[in-house]
Amino acid sequence: MENKKNNKYIRIGAARNKYFLYVVILFLALIMFYGGFLIGKKTELNNLGENEKNNNQTKEIRQSGYKFINPLLECEVKNTSSILKSSELRIKKIIQEEIIEKNPENNISFYYRDLKNGPAFGLNEQMQYSPASLLKVPLMIAYYKYAEKDSDIFDKEITFNNPSPEFYQQEMRPAKSLEIGKNYKVGELMEFMIKYSDNEATNLLFQNMNLDDLNMIFSDLGINAPNLYDPNNSITTKDYASFFRILYNASYLSRDMSEKALGLLSTVDYKNGLVAGVPDNVIMAHKFGERESLNENKKIVRQLHDCGIIYYSDRPYLLCIMTKGDKFEDLSKIISKISNVIYKEMSDL
Fold first, then answer.
1. Can you give the pTM of this predicted structure?
2. Which of 227, 189, 182 is nearest to 208 (CA)?
């Protein structure tokens, strides 16, 4: 009887040991499973974080000259979302195959930036071109900067006495020009310079300012300041686009002055180029530039550029196109085609 009782306890103890062993094994298995899951999740998050880091690399341009603040002028986000990336690839493919490859005798560059979401891209955007009349925009910015400290600057009068030969010759003559011997207010000269792209008005404004103030604008944006009188000065589409970005973001001038500057740029009377590539009802603040020169072989080379902000619905974007070739007419059509390609793509998003 005693032996049966002992055998019963032995069987119960063995069963308990076996049950305990199962629990331990199950517990260890769960630890291994969740440990592996957490490690995998951490690796996934690390990879995601690294991808996110790579997809959101930024380039910041800050304004110097302050002791206690560090104003942000520009912030460029590299790469884009999958939707915008596919749109970028389509645009580049069309422009490369339908425009650039069909015009091999011309140099063509463009830089695009979505002003709502920030992503940007381009083709040949680091190629150098003569800015020509595009330099009128930073000159305009300099005068609006003056106006922040002296509200009467636009009422100051300047007399136009003698035309300057180096400025007088323009292939695309302004619709309105200055009259010799007449006094003009700075505000009026600004309108002649931007709306009609008059070189004489530009010359008067340039002669009546401190050159260091103009150079400071370029310096603040990290761009080499060109000599306004140097026919060999150059700039890229990407660098030049910075002037429109700081106006749109009101990060260099006050909001009021930035609004006035873009308002003046929206009155430009040049209706080819960018404007011809979008519907008539689309508002655009832009500036064009043209230059004619001789290359090393004494052949005439023409450059035509158009850069600005296209206020399309709720998706405003910045587009800067620079071209170089034989005929202004051909270059103008190229700019219009690129403008139209990008506008249509924005319409489909």
1. 0.79
2. 189
Quote the CA–CA distance of 192 and 200 in Å, as a whole number.
9
| CB-based contact 125:307 (threshold 8 Å) | no
- The residue among 347 and 71 whose pLDDT is bigger is 347
Instruction: Find how far residue 248's CA is from the centre of its chain.
Output: 10
Mean pLDDT of 202-221: 93
Residues 6+ apart with CB under 8 A from 54: 79
Work out the number of other CB atoms within 10 angstroms of the CB of residue 233: 17
Cβ distance 333 to 339 under 8 Å?
A: no
- Give the side-chain half-sphere CA count within 13 A for 184: 23
Rounded mean pLDDT, 244-270 = 95
| CB hemisphere CA count around 192 (13 angstroms) | 20
What is the token pair recorded at 221? 């944006």
Task: Write down the pLDDT at residue 9.
Answer: 46
CA distance 332 to 287: 13
Instruction: For residue range 101-127, list pLDDT tens digits in order.
Output: 999 999 999 999 999 877 899 999 999
Which pLDDT does position 27 carry in this prediction? 57
Copy the structure tokens of residue 50. Answer: 């690294």
**From CA 307, how far away is CA 145, in angstroms rounded?**
21
CA–CA separation, 225 vs 215, rounded Å?
Answer: 5
Pairwise CA distance, residues 342 & 99, whole Å: 13
pLDDT-derived band at 166 (thresholds 50, 70, 90) equals low
d(CA 7, CA 130): 103
| CA 47 – CA 179 distance, rounded (Å) | 67
| Cα separation, 36 vs 59, whole angstroms | 38
Cβ proximity of 330 and 316 under 8 Å: no
Name the E strands within the chain: 58-62, 72-77, 107-114, 120-123, 157-160, 182-185, 283-294, 300-311, 317-325
Per-residue confidence (pLDDT) for residue 86, from 0 to 100: 85
- Other CB atoms within a 10 A radius of the CB of residue 23 amount to 10
Beta bridge partners of 112: 121, 319
Q: Is 322 left (phi over 0), alpha (psi -120 to 50) or beta?
A: beta
